[in-house]
Design brief:
This protein is an alpha+beta fold and 399 residues long. α8 (141-151) packs antiparallel against α12 (222-253) and α10 crosses α12 (222-253). It is 50% helix and 13% strand. The structure holds protoporphyrin IX containing FE (HEM). Protoporphyrin IX containing FE (HEM) binds at residues 53, 61, 65, 84-85, 96, 143, 147, 231-232, 235-236, 239-240, 243, 282-283, 286, 338-340, 344, 346-348, 351-352.
């Protein structure tokens, strides 16, 4: 089996499950060469991904959780500052504590009504046309609106910011020269304006709260705020969109499962949503860097080695999920790793669940006979998995 988890081509039709299956079976801790890098360890089994994600004492999120080290340009822009995503405890804990409360299950639950309104608004905008691009017209609208609302920004700005995150998540091979740096610059420029605005007119939104909050007895510096802003916009955007679009595709591909779900949508949706998270795994991987020598299975990991956890593979591991290669919307238990695990476990998971439920409920109850009119084109990314475009047709459901 040819293993290549770097080239975006390997991800051109979704997760490379043939490679994952081979790796789990034959080389669960696999050394992957890299043409323009040091190479990295691939973890493909559930147990190894689970344990490594929880072991921040050995496996660091610094300097980055991406396969490639940060481009020199971004260091110049941000100096010694880092994003919380790229910090280890105890520093990470201090930063996460600043906003943890806003993202807990209870406040996420309180957003249900507003998120349901947004879902209705999104479907209203397309329902009479009988056709749309499900990715940009439906799935992508939801997370960009929600993060804009949370930050106290106009919804249209959320849409523009979201386009920038798309550039940042495209594999370097598939981007134009300087495109990512330009997107990063625009994002930081926008965040600088938010600082100005919210300092002058603080409100009840997350951006104002972040600016007022203190870490180690001091307020955040501007670059620290800008990086927080980037993380929040970045982390919740195309992840949620990809789950919605690839989840919808999975439902269309499994009509018997969809029919089962529709028999009792309200009760069956929570389990179905978790199975779609397992099945689609919108985040392909997260990287860690070993701080000391460590053994995983029979492989000796050396301090400084890159170790990459493949969630899409862990989530299809038979040792954890019986009949792992079958979509089973009723699956319980379902301890998937789509949101990662350990200190960095997805901060937005409760909000993501509210968004997914609201959007799927709205689509499934209002759009009948939904089907692809062209094969979906997949994102050119080895980091984020989901369709880039997915033209669909549907009939408004008569209720
Ligand atoms: C289906 C949707 C989503 C998926 C699959 C997803 C996945 C993930 C994963 C795998 C991580 C772990 C990173 C690591 O271990 O290094 C993570 C972290 C994070 N996610 Fe999500 N995410 C989703 C939605 C969201 C949303 C909607 C938000 C915000 C509104 C969000 C905010 C964050 C933040 C801030 C972190 C960093 C946490 C930290 O470093 O402590 N995510 N997410």
């Amino acid at each position: 089996m040819r293993i290549d988890l770097v080239s975006p081509d390997s991800f051109a039709a979704g997760h490379p499950h043939d490679q994952y299956d081979w790796l789990r079976e034959n080389a669960p801790v696999y050394w992957h060469e890299e043409a323009d890098g040091t190479g990295f360890w691939v973890l493909s089994r559930y147990a190894d991904v689970y344990e490594t994600g929880r072991n921040h004492q050995v496996f660091s999120s610094e300097p980055t959780v991406m396969m490639q080290d940060p481009p020199p340009g971004s260091e110049q822009m941000m100096g010694e500052y880092q994003m919380m995503l790229n910090m280890d405890p105890p520093k990470h804990t201090a930063f996460r504590t600043l906003i943890r409360g806003e993202f807990a299950r209870e406040p996420a639950g309180r957003m249900q009504t507003r998120i349901a309104q947004l879902a209705a608004q999104i479907v209203d905008a397309v329902i009479d046309h009988g056709a749309c691009d499900f990715v940009s017209d439906v799935a992508g609208e939801m997370p960009s609106f929600v993060i804009a609302e949370m930050m106290g920004l106009p919804l249209d700005d959320g849409r523009e910011l979201y386009k920038l995150t798309e550039v940042l998540h495209t594999s370097p091979e598939a981007r134009r020269e300087g495109e990512a740096e330009a997107a990063l610059g625009q994002m930081f420029g926008y965040a600088a304006k938010v600082i100005e605005q919210k300092r002058a007119h603080p409100d009840d939104d997350l951006a104002s709260k972040l600016l007022a909050a203190e870490v180690d007895g001091r307020k955040l510096t501007d670059p620290e705020f800008q990086l927080f802003f980037l993380l929040l916009v970045d982390a919740g955007g195309d992840t949620t969109r990809n789950l919605l679009a690839s989840g919808m595709l999975a439902l269309m591909d499994h009509p018997e499962q969809l029919a089962w779900l529709m028999e009792d949508l309200d009760h069956r949706l929570p389990a179905a949503r978790e199975e779609l998270l397992r099945w689609c795994s919108p985040v392909t991987y997260m990287r860690r860097t070993a701080k000391s020598d460590f053994k995983i299975g029979d492989k000796a990991i050396k301090a400084g080695d890159k170790v990459i956890m493949y969630y899409g593979s862990a989530n299809r591991d038979e040792a954890q999920f019986p009949q792992a290669d079958r979509l089973n919307l009723a699956r319980t238990p379902n301890d998937h790793l789509a949101f990662g695990g350990g200190a960095h476990v997805c901060l937005g998971q409760h909000i993501a669940r509210v968004e997914i439920d609201a959007m799927l409920r709205e689509v499934l109850t209002r759009m009948d006979k939904i089907q692809c009119t062209e094969p979906p084109a997949w994102l050119e990314s080895n980091f984020i998995s989901g369709p880039k475009t997915m033209p669909v047709s549907f009939a408004p459901r008569i209720t």
